[in-house]
Design goal:
Layout lengths: L11 E7 L3 E6 L7 E3 L5 E3 L50 E4 L10 E3 L4 E2 L38 E4 L8 E4 L6 E5 L5 E2 L5 E2 L2 E2 L2 E4 L3 E3 L5 E6 L3 E9 L2 E7 L1 E2 L2 E2 L4 E4 L5 E4 L5 E4 L8 E5 L3 E5 L5 E5 L1
Parallel strand pairs: 12-15
Antiparallel strand pairs: 1-2, 2-3, 3-4, 5-10, 6-10, 7-11, 8-9, 13-24, 14-21, 15-16, 16-17, 17-18, 19-20, 21-22, 22-23, 24-25, 25-26
Length: about 300
């Protein structure tokens, strides 16, 4: 045996059994045990642990201070992450998939692309119902702005030339309906009322009984009963309190449809499709939204307001 003195890095000085139950291993001079083992076999390590070989856990494992795996990890069951996954292979907030299953039975953390809320990062959920996605292209005036809408709802046919002798003819496109779904992440804010939406983009509109909500849900722009477009404080002292409405000659104007038009204007139309109000934001407005400071506004492509009320 060598006569060299070996200085241990640490020394186990006490092995305690508290009240005949938990077995604890505590270092001299410290209060918190390094290891605690319950009669049921649950072990708590209040220090780091390195496993050089294989480790088998037959029950659930919880890592409250984080878990680092330098090699590969495999699971035969389900791995849940309340705050989402990050890194290579992870699904980022805002990722969109086509879903062939029941739209009422979506995977956890995924939501329909129906414009009815906000993602965990605060971005509004896009409304892709009856839409076809086109790749954003900064070189194109039509496709350079992400989130812009275009095309015609009647554009379901294309012109083809069957042969040299025949003229151009309508050819109906075949389609198959699937739901677009988006990963919202932890903290996604989904509106409970299906008649409410997060914003209005070009060529989108609301009818009587529908509206746009602020993220908190306190402020709502809505075509209320009586066909009156009003910005409401839903937590007012007397219930839903109007903050802004369309007045002319001392009377509140009525309408049936509010449209964020492709030309950048927000317009309120009456039942005869005559405009009774316009924001006068031609070639400037991109979307209309309601903010949590109690305002309805039209933003430009940079997210700056070009019209705001009240």
């Amino acid at each position: 045996m060598s006569e060299d003195t070996v200085t241990p890095l640490w020394t186990l000085t006490r092995v305690n059994q508290i009240d005949g139950e938990n077995l604890s291993l505590t270092l001299d001079g410290e209060v918190t045990p390094k290891v605690e083992i319950t009669p049921e076999g649950k072990a708590t390590f209040n220090t780091s642990m390195t496993v050089a070989g294989a480790m088998v856990m037959q029950g659930p494992a919880t890592a409250e201070a984080g878990l680092t795996v330098s090699g590969s990890a495999s699971a035969t069951g389900t791995i849940a992450a309340e705050q989402g996954f990050v890194g290579m292979g992870a699904v980022p907030v805002g990722a969109i998939l086509m879903w062939s299953g029941d739209p009422k039975k979506l995977p956890a953390g995924w939501y329909l692309c129906n414009g009815g809320g906000w993602l965990a990062n605060g971005d509004p959920i896009p409304d892709l119902r009856s839409q076809f996605i086109v790749g954003q292209d900064s070189r194109s005036n039509e496709y350079k702005l992400a989130g812009r809408r275009g095309g015609s709802p009647q554009g379901s046919k294309v012109k083809v030339l069957p042969n040299a002798q025949a003229g151009a003819a309508d050819f109906p496109l075949r389609w198959y309906a699937l739901a677009y779904i988006i990963f919202g992440g932890r903290g996604a804010n989904i509106l409970a009322d299906p008649n409410m939406r997060a914003d209005l983009r070009n060529d989108q509109f609301i009818n009587e009984g529908e509206g746009i909500s602020s993220p908190s849900g306190r402020y709502v722009l809505k075509i209320a009963t009586g066909r009156k477009l009003q910005l409401l404080d839903m937590r007012g002292n007397a219930g839903a309190t109007p903050l802004w409405r369309i007045m002319l000659g001392g009377f509140e104007r009525e309408g049936s449809k509010a449209v964020m038009q492709a030309d950048g204007n927000f317009v309120f139309y009456n039942k005869d499709t005559e405009p009774v109000f316009a924001s006068d934001t031609n070639n400037q407005g991109v979307l209309l939204r309601v903010t949590d400071d109690g305002k309805v506004r039209v933003d430009d492509a940079d997210g700056k307001p070009v019209w705001s009320k009240p």
